[in-house]
Specification:
about 450 residues, alpha/beta, nine-stranded mixed beta sheet, eight-stranded mixed beta sheet
């Protein structure tokens, strides 16, 4: 078994099947972990404690919700199984994307949730980039934050009509998005493979672990009680109060919000079962010649294209490129996770020298069946929110602020999501294998598109 086990983390089926002689692609092996400032000094929950609102999960969503609740004057306690940012929030590529996944757009959101909720959702998300960078500035978070823009280049000319329509939909909401021509896309990305691009100048990139640790510092300063090493192992209601059990204590609360996505460990099985866990591999290269920045992402934007098996990349402050993505076959995936995505990037950008995986790590995100966020009711006063779907930083930070306002007594009408009951996928124990089936199909579709 690879050395992936860590307190507060349940190995996925990928890690259970994979074996490799090299060190594991763990939290501590990530580039972000090597350079991020420390989080706040916190203790575990011992004994019994009482709070007004309990938040479970110390990622972007949980900490944004807790911070904004505390700033509104509420007594908030947050339980984190390991440390702030240990999950997907601290392991991703660090893209701040105020947008939905490829194939989803404002029109889809309005069809999915109705015109009112759909409009609230896309407007909230469109403002997510500005919110992230405002929090960085307001709380002086040292996370290499750069609001230089996010691009979505199209990998085939056949998607030009789709691109034009997508740009028009977001512009109709007053968003400052732009359509880049083929020449502009090539100049911005450094790759001749692209035929145009969607550009949102309010996006950008950060060190995600440093950002989530900065949110933790801000939350504690605002009055949030943050307990680390405090995995919630049980939840139940006694009278009007909710009781959350940990290995060493009990937290009693009037209201509860779970933000654990698929890593709750069975705390709320039906809610967790609404998602497909997905293992992602991330790689940071060796430090490269700064001259390369003149031709590769010269304006320091981040880029994630429109392939099903997309190619995403960005620069770091110290002249590394970070990239990553999915793998279809878990067998031997740890070694291929270090090399496969660098190979794809070198094909896309032939001007790069041979790339070495100086840092490599893996993480787990959760995707809903419709790739949209959800707010599920677990009981009177207890809820579970999921909102990552591969667009985590802007979406979760912005949704956290909205949920805080709602938990403070705001009306349901102002929520950007309907409140639903958990609706687990069929055979949730097999859900981790879903993308091993989907990815090869997506790659075949990508190849067909490129053949034209």
């Amino acid at each position: 078994m690879p050395e992936i086990a860590h307190k507060g983390y349940t190995p996925t089926i990928w890690e259970s099947l994979a074996a490799a002689p090299h060190p594991s692609l763990s939290f501590q092996s990530s580039f972000w972990h090597s350079v991020a400032p420390a989080g706040p000094a916190c203790t575990r929950l011992d004994g019994e404690a009482r709070t007004e609102i309990a938040v479970v999960g110390g990622g972007f969503l949980g900490l944004s919700t807790a911070l904004h609740l505390a700033e509104a004057g509420h007594k908030v306690t947050l339980l984190e199984a390991d440390e702030a940012g240990f999950g997907a929030s601290g392991r991703n590529t660090g893209f701040v994307v105020p947008n939905l996944l490829t194939g989803l757009d404002p029109r889809y959101a309005k069809e999915k949730f109705g015109p009112e909720k759909g409009d609230l959702l896309v407007r909230m998300l469109g403002e997510g980039g500005d919110l992230v960078f405002d929090l960085i500035k307001r709380h002086e978070i040292d996370c290499w934050g750069k609001q230089t823009g996010w691009m979505q280049p199209i990998h085939t000319a056949k998607k030009l009509d789709w691109l034009e329509d997508r740009v028009k939909q977001w512009q109709a909401l007053g968003r400052p998005v732009k359509l880049l021509s083929r020449d502009e896309a090539v100049a911005e990305t450094g790759s001749e493979a692209y035929h145009g691009a969607f550009l949102d100048p309010t996006g950008g990139h950060i060190n995600p672990l440093a950002f989530v640790r900065g949110l933790a510092h801000a939350a504690v300063k605002a009055g949030v009680t943050l307990h680390i090493d405090s995995r919630a192992t049980g939840i139940g209601k006694k009278g009007a109060e909710w009781h959350l059990q940990t290995d060493h204590g009990t937290l009693i609360a009037d209201r509860v919000l779970l933000t654990t996505n698929s890593t709750g460990g069975g705390l709320a099985p039906k809610a967790e079962g609404t998602q497909f866990p997905i293992t992602l591999f991330q790689v940071a290269t060796q430090q490269l010649d700064p001259e390369l920045r003149k031709s590769v992402l010269p304006n320091d934007r981040c880029s994630a294209d429109t392939r099903k098996d997309l190619i995403a990349y960005r620069w770091t402050n110290d002249n590394r490129i970070v990239t990553g993505g999915l793998l279809a076959n878990p067998l031997g995936s740890l070694e291929r996770g270090r090399t496969h995505h660098l190979g794809r990037l070198q094909e896309l950008l032939p001007q790069l020298p041979k790339l070495e995986p100086e840092f490599a790590w893996q993480g787990r995100l959760a995707a809903a069946r419709d790739y949209m966020p959800r707010l599920m009711q677990l009981g009177d006063g207890a809820f579970s929110a999921i909102s990552c779907n591969g667009r985590g930083i802007a979406m979760t930070t912005a949704l956290g602020r909205k949920l805080a306002y709602w938990l403070s007594g705001g009306s349901n009408e102002e929520l950007p999501l309907p409140i639903t009951a958990p609706d687990p996928v069929l055979l949730p124990k097999l859900a981790p294998l879903a993308f091993s089936v989907w990815l090869p199909m997506g790659r075949r579709e990508d190849a067909k598109d490129l053949r034209g």
